[in-house]
Amino acid sequence: MTEAKEAILLVGGKGTRLRPLTVHTPKPMVPAAGVPFLTHQLARARAAGVEHIVLATSYLAEVFEPYFGDGSSLGLHIEYVTEQEPLGTGGAIRNVAPKLSSGPDEPVLIFNGDILTGLDIRALVTSHTVSGADVSLHLTRVEDPRAFGLVPTDATGRVTAFLEKPQTPEEIVTDQINAGAYIFRRSVIDTIPSGRPVSVERETFPGLLASGAHLQGMVDSTYWLDLGTPGAFVRGSADLVLGRAPSPAVPGRCGDRLVLPTARVAPDAKLTGGTVVGAGAVVGAGARIEGSTILENAIVEPNTVITDSLVGAGARIGSRTVLAGAVIGDGAHVGADNELRDGIRIWCGATLPDGSVRFSSDQ
């Protein structure tokens, strides 16, 4: 069998690094390429043969079910389990186990709610089945692995160790990292302790390895991006629109721009680099927007220049203002003739007067 019929999607994180995007919206529900990011993950799982998905929710849990319902609109059966207290990745997996109906030896797909990837899910399931592994991990190669956990494998792809973030050159024994998607043999999930926080990366995987379990790694170095920061999120959205990152859920043809229905864009405004303009948003004359996301009902006044930035829902950007690598929170008002660069973030509902800011910030 080369399909996993069931999946667990871990969507409980607070998205602290993404603030102010996540003040009112949980990270997986922030729009990417015109729809909540989670929609892309659900659609890709469905395309790979998954039929039943359990969402492990925690932060702002109440917003998921009203949007996705029972999943039938996506051809899925979706259920929801809300953690009362944070349980970590392993604890969250164990917490939703009672919702699964797979047999003890059947494969269950598990993935994180903040990774945009071109992973061939069916190939991971096939690798898992052929190798007879207890757990299979999607691994990807990165140029600088110091920010990640390393996962060395032997010649057959069997995992030999889990190495937490290496600091010295001697500790960097591989460029393979844990890419955040797994296939678990159903019975293995039941071995995770219940009712307490458990890290699958720091406790479950090393513990399984120490006990002699078979953990298999499959290196798939197609598109992979951790959407944990605003800059990465904006880039991921643009890559979805441009077609660099695959998703069956992009609401329109891939290309330089995605303008949602009811948005109004002036004829001479220039939108490039995978820019998204959300429903009800307005882009004024002479505006130039590259690689950016303009969320629903935002207003971009004439002659603004916006690059690699995100403008929150209902925000307003004044004429001739320049944004580069900036994040503007929902409902914020940035007056005319401002210049905001280099990772600066404007909080939800904040107001900046005309011409008041000409500096940048890396905070």
From TrEMBL:
<comment type="similarity">
    <text>Belongs to the transferase hexapeptide repeat family.</text>
</comment>
<dbReference type="Pfam" id="PF00483">
    <property type="entry name" value="NTP_transferase"/>
</dbReference>
<dbReference type="InterPro" id="IPR029044">
    <property type="entry name" value="Nucleotide-diphossugar_trans"/>
</dbReference>
<dbReference type="Pfam" id="PF25087">
    <property type="entry name" value="GMPPB_C"/>
</dbReference>
<dbReference type="InterPro" id="IPR005835">
    <property type="entry name" value="NTP_transferase_dom"/>
</dbReference>
<feature type="domain" description="Mannose-1-phosphate guanyltransferase C-terminal">
    <location>
        <begin position="255"/>
        <end position="336"/>
    </location>
</feature>
<protein>
    <submittedName>
        <fullName>NDP-sugar synthase</fullName>
    </submittedName>
</protein>
<feature type="domain" description="Nucleotidyl transferase">
    <location>
        <begin position="7"/>
        <end position="239"/>
    </location>
</feature>
<dbReference type="InterPro" id="IPR056729">
    <property type="entry name" value="GMPPB_C"/>
</dbReference>
<dbReference type="InterPro" id="IPR050486">
    <property type="entry name" value="Mannose-1P_guanyltransferase"/>
</dbReference>
